[in-house]
């Protein structure tokens, strides 16, 4: 299924030992895409995970730490969390936050506290929920001396892309991209009538519509995607989309990199739900 209405999907609370965040999850070939929702003043403890994380607030603000740097992150600012970087995301006290949350599938959606060692294998959300219910998680000494969390030398992880999501429309098509090791994130604004197509997508891609509308087709299925809709384009799928109506469209796009694709095709993708 290539089209998803995020606010109509089941919410999952995947890391109750570390975070208040909950939200729907779409599991792609190489990436997880979710909306993470946190109530005012709540969020995550300092933690880390081997997979890369990309985030982008849609509503509310994040009190965010990556490595040693702390910022209050508003809608329109992208945050990149490299593999094993220590981080924490908390909603500010003045309201709920909802943000795009994309991880590669070299690990599951389960993180480890910053002061503990990683488990020998990526735990599934199902395993963690069962162990928590039985009082068995995490189940061993934290071993802070064996933590692989990275605090120093991460470089710049905060990228302002637009001053506000409802800023005046652009005069021309514009794209801003940040490419990590495993995924690339783009914030894009397109004029009415602008479109693209592919007969065989070179990478897996997701598009989340923020403003305006896109007339989209993926492997023969069609939909007018409006704000809050997500479009999934698997690798090798045939797709096309075009800005609908007379207004500009703003949307976030994420795509897999050749490095991630090669790693998962060789080792397999982490399974977040079974195992």
Question: Could you explain the architecture of this structure?
Answer:
- The protein has 275 residues and is mainly beta.
- The chain has two domains: 7-160, Jelly Rolls (Sandwich), CATH 2.60.120; 174-259, Jelly Rolls, CATH 2.60.120.
- Helix content is 7%, strand content 40%.
- It is built from two helices and 21 strands.
- It has helices spanning 125-133, 258-267; strands at residues 3-5, 25-27, 31-38, 47-48, 53-59, 62-66, 69-73, 77-81, 87-91, 97-104, 112-113, 158-160, 174-179, 183-190, 195-198, 205-211, 214-218, 221-225, 229-233, 239-243, 249-256.
- The radius of gyration is 18 Å and the shape is globular.
- The two termini are 24 Å apart.
- The model has no long low-confidence stretch (mean pLDDT 95).
Keywords:
21 strands, Jelly Rolls, mainly beta, six-stranded antiparallel beta sheet, 275 residues, 2 helices
Topology:
Layout: E1 3-5, E2 25-27, E3 31-38, E4 47-48, E5 53-59, E6 62-66, E7 69-73, E8 77-81, E9 87-91, E10 97-104, E11 112-113, H1 125-133, E12 158-160, E13 174-179, E14 183-190, E15 195-198, E16 205-211, E17 214-218, E18 221-225, E19 229-233, E20 239-243, E21 249-256, H2 258-267
Antiparallel strand pairs: 1-19, 2-3, 3-10, 4-11, 5-8, 5-10, 6-7, 6-9, 8-12, 13-14, 14-21, 15-20, 16-19, 16-21, 17-18, 17-20
For the largest sheet, list the strands in their spatial order.
Answer: 1-19-16-21-14-13
Main sheet properties: 6 strands, antiparallel
CATH-defined topology of the largest domain: Jelly Rolls
- How many beta-strand elements? 21
Strand content: 35-45%
Number of spatially distinct domains: 2
The overall average pLDDT, rounded, is 95
> So what's the CATH class of the largest domain?
Mainly Beta
**Percentage of helical residues?**
under 10%
Low-confidence stretches: none
Shape descriptor reads: globular
CATH superfamily of the largest domain: Jelly Rolls
State the distance separating the first and last CA atoms: 24 Å
- Oligomer kind: single chain
Tell me what the CATH architecture of the largest domain is.
Answer: Sandwich
How much is the radius of gyration in Å? 18 Å
N-to-C SSE string, H for helix and E for strand: EEEEEEEEEEEHEEEEEEEEEEH
Q: Give the helix/strand class.
A: mainly beta
